[in-house]
């Protein structure tokens, strides 16, 4: 028997997926524009263009980095600022995508808020979750790096450099797994918000409970999509290496392949978020009319 949750599928919202892809493409353009302008100013008159930077030996690239050290540093800072702001602003298209997918699974007679209103409703709590969960992941990864370095330093004399490094990496793996678990729980909490949880901490509690109930199933659901997103990156990376610094049709093909990879990864990400939405409670757990400013009695 088909349930309302079964209708929550990423493929049902291609326009929303294209919107997230357009956002990521625009963000990448803004982040890379200062560096591209710097290269254009330095090598715009060269008949080979920036292809000279990728010649064997990397002599031109090293010379460019040395001569334009201040410009490169400024471009990197600008890119970091853009990506930092984009991480927060990117919650808008992400929330809109999740709201659009969740709308397909609204039960008959259940709450169906307007897409824009629903997106605005979840944004404050999603912002809180972003900072809390990002801090949690940073602490997990930092603790893993510290534990690995500490173990490597203690065992360097007795085990030798190679085995000490292997031990350090092995000790870091559990912390990496913890960071992944935090990320999966983060997405489940986002799904709980979109499905009606009132407040970021309530959504986080629901996300933790859901992950605790089925950690292996949820981890696999996330992992195969994440791994699938790496395959086109590797393939296109190999193709880019063969194309080298060519222009014309080769450059156009490379650009299309690159955008295809971005779109494919966005689609896989949307597929995972749809799976997270299907796992969380639906209309039966919507907030009551007294605490819901967007509640419409006519939809009851």
Total beta strands: 0
What ranges have pLDDT less than 50 throughout 5 or more consecutive residues? 108-113, 283-300
Order of helices and strands: HHHHHHHHH
User: Beta fraction of the residues?
Assistant: under 5%
Mean pLDDT: 80
Structural Rg: 23 Å
**How much helix is in the residues?**
over 70%
How far is it from the N-terminal to the C-terminal residue, by CA?
24 Å
Largest sheet: none
Secondary structure category: mainly alpha
Number of discrete domains: 1
In DSSP terms (H or I, runs of 4 or more residues), the helix count works out at 9
What is the general shape?
globular
Topology:
Blueprint: H1 14-43, H2 59-67, H3 69-89, H4 91-103, H5 115-159, H6 161-194, H7 200-213, H8 215-243, H9 249-279
Helix pairs in contact: 1-3, 1-4, 1-9, 4-5, 4-9, 5-6, 6-7, 6-9, 8-9
Describe this entry's structure for a reader.
By secondary structure, the chain is mainly alpha-helical. The protein is built from 9 helices and no strands. The chain is globular, with a radius of gyration of 23 Å. 25% of the residues are buried.
Question: Quick gist of this model?
Answer:
With 300 residues, this protein is mainly alpha-helical. The chain contains 9 helices and no strands. It is globular and about 60 Å long.
């Amino acid at each position: 028997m088909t349930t309302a949750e079964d209708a929550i599928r990423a493929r049902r919202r291609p326009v929303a997926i294209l919107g997230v892809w357009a956002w990521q493409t625009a963000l990448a353009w803004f982040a890379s524009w200062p560096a591209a302008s710097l290269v254009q100013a330095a090598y715009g008159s060269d008949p080979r263009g920036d292809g000279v930077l990728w010649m064997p030996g990397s002599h031109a690239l090293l010379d460019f980095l040395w001569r334009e050290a201040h410009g490169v540093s400024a471009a990197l800072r600008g890119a970091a600022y853009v990506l930092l702001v984009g991480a927060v602003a990117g919650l808008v298209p992400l929330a809109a995508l999740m709201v659009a997918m969740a709308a397909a699974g609204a039960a008959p007679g259940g709450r169906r808020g307007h897409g824009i209103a629903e997106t605005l409703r979840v944004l404050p709590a999603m912002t809180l979750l972003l900072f809390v969960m990002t801090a949690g992941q940073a602490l997990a990864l930092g603790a893993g790096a510290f534990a690995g370095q500490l173990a490597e330093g203690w065992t360097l004399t007795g085990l030798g450099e190679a085995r000490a490094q292997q031990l350090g990496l092995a000790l870091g793996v559990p912390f990496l797994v913890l960071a992944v678990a935090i990320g999966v729980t983060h997405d489940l909490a986002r799904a709980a918000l979109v499905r009606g949880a009132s407040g970021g901490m309530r959504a986080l509690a629901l996300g933790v409970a859901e992950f605790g109930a089925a950690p292996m199933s949820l981890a696999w659901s996330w992992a195969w999509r994440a791994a699938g997103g790496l395959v086109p990156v590797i393939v296109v990376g190999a193709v880019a290496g063969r194309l080298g610094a060519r222009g014309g049709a080769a450059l156009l093909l490379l650009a299309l392949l690159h955008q295809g990879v971005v779109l494919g990864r966005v689609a896989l990400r949307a597929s995972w978020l749809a799976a997270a939405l299907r796992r969380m409670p639906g209309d039966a757990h919507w907030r009551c009319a007294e605490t819901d400013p967007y509640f419409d009695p006519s939809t009851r």
